[in-house]
User: What shape does this take?
Amino acid sequence: MAVYTHLGAEELSALISQYDVGALVSAKGIAEGVSNSNWLIETTGPEGTGARYILTMYERRIELSDLPYFLGLLDHLSEKGCPVPRTIHDRDGSAYRMKRGKAVALIEFLPGVSPTQPSPEQAGAVGRVLADMHLASRDFARSRTNTMSFPDNLVLLERCGADRLARIDPGLPSMLGPARAAAELDLSRLPHASIHADLFPDNVLMLGEQVTGLIDFYFACTGSMALDLATTHAAWCFDRENRYRADLGAALIAGYESVRPLGAQERELLPEIAKGAALRFVASRAEDWLDTPDDALVTRKDPMQFVARWHVYDDLGEKLFDRT
Ligand SMILES: Nc1ncnc2c1ncn2[C@@H]1O[C@H](COP(=O)(O)OP(=O)(O)OP(=O)(O)O)[C@@H](O)[C@H]1O
Ligand SMILES: N[C@@H](CCO)C(=O)O
Assistant: This one.
């Protein structure tokens, strides 16, 4: 359940009246997501013909000082024709407002549903849109440091400590060594852009094989484009039992390269970057696991899924590029 703050009808109406979107018709809390409160908002629309929006209240983890980067990036990409929601600015031109001491933003509603078992065609489409997004972001003026870089992941895992990691699963402490190796990888020489950095299927809206929306840009940062491709690969190209789906992997990379071919250094490093990308989710999930009380309503995400994926990448090596 992801509505942490209850906003009453009068409060919501007053908030919506600060925007040129017509009057509030309905507001429904959205259950998906765990980080922020989200509502699906219906209004009479700027033209009086009805309109839908997403209202997000930033609850935790997000620094207020990062909002101009996140929301500015949405506007920049949307202007360039990428399928991302634009931010609706209020009458004063602000992309976000403060409500009860928390930032809120009104965001364009995009159609589509997130695939649960993606097809190769869908993986290919996501690869193309990811590359489009990278190219479109290159002249975005703002920058943001990646707070989930490979060295950051090592710090997270070390802070959890081998004993507490072993309490989650006896196989987890063995990831400290690989996290140390990943932290040594130098991605600074690789081409950079603004990257999504968390492009799981639940952050992509699709209608059939068409990508209608990339959402949840709250880990976006300035980073290596190959890292974004590897992260998307780790998130998309496995079945429910964490077995590698080479057909999805090949389709994702081919889709990406049909728009932006990887450079020689990116190709050479991609198998190692994929291992680091898997560790990123081992680290964040392990930390979340330890931070979430046993009786919390939120379902914890299993870090061992990404331990399994790390092992797949370790075995695959260069075969990461193979179709079978
Ligand atoms: N622009 C949009 N258009 C349509 N639906 C959206 C949009 N943004 C968000 N949603 C819907 O709201 C849900 C929650 O959004 P989101 O994933 O951004 O929440 P979150 O709490 O920030 O997520 P997370 O738990 O992944 O950090 C999505 O699964 C999607 O159904
Ligand atoms: N998408 C991430 C959560 C955000 O870090 C995961 O599935 O672990």
User: Anything to note?
Assistant: The chain has a mean pLDDT of 95. Strands lie at 24-29, 37-43, 51-57, 87-88, 97-99, 102-108, 192-195, 204-207, 210-214, 221-224. The longest strand covers residues 37-43. The two ends are 39 Å apart (CA to CA).
